Amino acid sequence: MKKAILDQDSASPLYMQLMRKLRSDIISGVYPVHSRIPAEQELCETYQISRVTVRKALAELTREGLLERHQGKGTFVSIPRIRLDLRSINSFNAVCASMGRKPTTQVVSALITAAHPSDREIHLVEEQENIVEITRVRLADGLPVMLETNRFPQRYEWLLHEDLTGSLYSLLRSRGVEPEQAIHEISLCYASPTEAKWLGVDAGAALLALEEVIYDQEGRPLHTSRQRIRGDRFTFRI
User: Fold this and answer.
1) Which CATH architecture describes the domain 14-77?
2) H/E/C letters for each residue in 11-30?
3) Predicted confidence band at 51 (pLDDT cuts at 50, 70, 90)?
4) Among 138, 139, 168, 178, which is most exposed with the fewest C-beta within 10 angstroms?
5) How far apart are CA 112 and CA 123, in angstroms?
6) What's the fold here for domain 82-237?
7) Mean of pLDDT values over 225-229
């Protein structure tokens, strides 16, 4: 690798300059997904910086999800995380497509079930009304990303007769129903054995938990969504 000395006089710390350079090289394809980036010593010699600086830059890029380190093997470019902007309502399929990823869906269950007290508290259903519950695994390029359970009022029972492997929002929009706004709650949780099986992680692994209430164009609760998400493959923008 040709020497590319960083700007020692810049107000920007050297580790941040190296981060920007490596990030740019990853985005431009100099280092493709799954490729190994140069070893720490080679980066030190190429950029005339200390090993401490290199390690700090690599640690930050690993935290961002751009790199992953394999003990005894080196540092590799990771599969880019899917980024969902919570400021707008977009389907998983649309988000994947915008990033050049291929979305697929496995339907775990689709049924009519009893409402929870919490469903009535948010006025999703009336007394004695049941719930349409759809649980699916969402995948990007064949890799499981999230396990989601959506709960709709019983008037959306027609969904159970549709193809649920695509976008539910496309189905709703075809019937004149527009998801317009949402309330989100994000937290950390740990995978149950069932969640672990569907998401391809160990039981007890840390997951992102997203709980949502989605409202339609008339301001009525449209559905709730409970998502268990692999944080190594998905991230949020707020």
Assistant:
1) Orthogonal Bundle (1.10)
2) CCCHHHHHHHHHHHHHHHCC
3) very high
4) 178
5) 18
6) Chorismate lyase (3.40.1410)
7) 94
